[in-house]
Design a protein that fits this description.
CATH class: Alpha Beta
Number of domains: 1
Strand order of the largest sheet: 4-1-5-8-6-7
Order of helices and strands: HHEHEEHEHEEHEHEHH
CATH topology: Aminopeptidase
Oligomer: single chain
Bound molecules: zinc ion
Strand content: 5-15%
Number of strands: 8
Helix content: 25-40%
Largest sheet: 6 strands, mixed
């Protein structure tokens, strides 16, 4: 009998717990007590107070990914389109200059546009892996342009935190090394100019691990010029990186080697990430 009574009580408890039939059980008194205790119709039973949970705090929205424009210099179709790339465009200094140029090449014929495109893709992949949204100024290495004024306007249009133009220089063969170029006009005001200087320093400090600073231009891997339209027209921190002198044998060897380009891309990405911190 004791077994049967306990079983009946358990059955009623289960029913009450599931919100089932609240009719009193006909069996043991203990079962009836359990049933009435769980009924909301009895004012004599004070339910156990449970602490009121604190109001839910909504999770903050994820911070938007920083946007960086990578501008691989020149383009693969430029040499075959002299009319288009020779058209005058605003230079950001009150005058005009050519839409774009063909760029240089190593003595062995490895062209600058192919170098800049490859390094830009490698740098993009590294930055994307670190949560950066990358916008390239051109979609491939076979087109014409875009013109330098269009490239310079791009970072402002996409809300970029930084603009990094990637180039290889074509100087006298005796000179070697990289240099990072800033606009000497500080066209977007002192705050952006300070950002540009910080970006240039971050890239210089990163690149120096794999390429010596230029021996033939600038100072300590930095140079300041007023004739580069994209830098003059950018409304965000903006630099050009001349990753080496393609006419110099040592630089050309590094720039023609995929491993050398990967090393340069890793330092460019490290510099950009340092700047974004
Ligand atoms: Zn160039």
């Amino acid at each position: 009998m004791r077994r049967a009574g306990a079983g009946a009580a358990l059955a009623v408890l289960l029913l009450a717990g599931c919100g089932g039939d609240p009719a009193p059980a006909p069996a043991a008194p203990s079962a009836a007590t359990s049933s009435s205790a769980s009924s909301s119709s009895s004012p004599a039973v004070v339910p156990v107070e449970t602490p009121t949970p604190p109001p839910a705090v909504p999770a903050p929205p994820p911070a938007p990914a920083p946007v960086v424009v990578l501008d691989p210099g020149h383009n693969g179709g430029n040499a075959a389109a002299p009319g288009a790339i020779g058209a005058p465009v605003p230079d950001g200094a009150g005058g005009t200059k050519a839409c774009n140029t063909t760029g240089t090449a190593t003595d062995a014929g490895y062209p600058e546009h192919a170098f800049t495109w490859d390094v830009a893709l490698r740098t993009r992949d590294l930055l994307v892996a670190h949560g950066v949204e990358v916008v390239l100024s051109r979609p491939d290495d076979t087109g014409v342009g875009p013109c330098v004024d269009v490239r310079g306007a791009l970072p402002g249009q996409v809300g970029a935190a930084a603009f990094v133009g990637i180039h290889g220089d074509g100087a006298a063969a005796g000179g070697s090394g990289f240099h990072v170029i800033t606009s000497s006009l500080d066209p977007a005001g002192p705050e952006v100019a300070a950002g540009t200087d910080a970006l240039a320093a971050a890239l210089r400090d990163a690149l120096v691990a794999v390429v010596p600073p230029a021996t033939y231009v600038g100072s300590g891997g930095l140079d300041d010029r007023g004739d580069l339209a994209a830098l003059n027209l950018a409304t965000t921190p903006a630099v050009y990186v001349e990753c080496g002198n393609m006419r110099n044998a040592g630089d050309a060897a590094r720039m023609s080697d995929p491993a050398g380009r990967q090393a340069i891309a890793e330092r460019l990405a490290a510099g950009v990430l340092s700047f974004l911190e």
